[in-house]
């Protein structure tokens, strides 16, 4: 395996998923039972077929039971689970050929429908579950079964830093991984988590969803608009990606709620709103103020603003608040146009606000929002 990836010109070290760690720990535990000897290292294949050798921590074994751990190494990725010990405790079942896989301490339990694991199951996703079972079967052959418990001390506390609570996974982290390798600074896992949350809502019967680009949007939607938290999905800066996922999954109604500082970019057709990718906030505001006939003096002052809130103070001073309605109408137009010519047709409405000013404008009236979304 190439141990490094290059992101924005930086050389960053790759890591391993919790699923690969659980698979390696399981292989070590089974090998210790079969060989009646301590394993210090073990070699396994990741889900994408790459062979990796991993150090074994805290090994112990008996005649039919053994336990081993592998330390989660997220490489140079911003990984909440980095450094956790992923344990596998294996008990052979000589009178059965079944392989039973479950979660113990620190591994979450699924409490809501719509995920890849059924309600009540340990949050061990299908790919790592399949890799654990495959590895166990290769070592045990076809005539012996095993009970395998994956546990993660400290997992319940770490789960507070992940998306699990939003997905109805309680009590710990998830055992994840589609390839077995963690690519550093990758946005793909974040996007995948959003897709999981959207899919869960869809499978629960919802065909409409509220999208917010961050905590500010979520808080405004909940505390000001009165929208139930379970209807809201945090799309981060991935506005275009998430809108396309919404359409692909099958939703037909969207309400986007966000701070003007993020959403004004959408009015200009910018759908990746992170500052590293784009910034045309003041230019978009100035252009639309100019179309409303705003004086050059106002435009020049807005051009010097660092934040949309600062621009908002000037807009209020010069009595050009109507620009907010123009902007939200363009946000709606741009977003719906992004999804044109694909099915299903998605109807999108927008609410935007400022830090100090609060509510600024929306494409639905607040009464209509209350009736449809709360």
Automatic annotation (TrEMBL):
Q: In which pathway does it act?
A: Cofactor biosynthesis; adenosylcobalamin biosynthesis; cob(II)yrinate a,c-diamide from sirohydrochlorin (anaerobic route): step 6/10
Q: Which Pfam families match?
A: CbiD
Ranked from the top, the taxonomy reads: Bacteria, Bacillati, Bacillota, Bacilli, Lactobacillales
MF terms in GO: cobalt-precorrin-5B C1-methyltransferase activity
Q: What family is reported?
A: Belongs to the CbiD family.
* Catalytic activities: Co-precorrin-5B + S-adenosyl-L-methionine = Co-precorrin-6A + S-adenosyl-L-homocysteine
Task: Look up and give the organism this protein is from.
Answer: Streptococcus australis ATCC 700641
Entry's SUPFAM superfamilies?
A: CbiD-like (SSF111342)
The UniProt keywords, alphabetically, are: Cobalamin biosynthesis, Methyltransferase, S-adenosyl-L-methionine, Transferase
Q: Which NCBIfam families match?
A: cbiD
Q: Which InterPro entries match?
A: CbiD, CbiD_sf
Entry protein name: Cobalt-precorrin-5B C(1)-methyltransferase
Known EC number: 2.1.1.195
For the biological process aspect of GO, one term held by this record is: anaerobic cobalamin biosynthetic process
Specify whether Methyltransferase is a keyword of the entry: yes
Could you name the domain of life of the organism this protein comes from? Bacteria
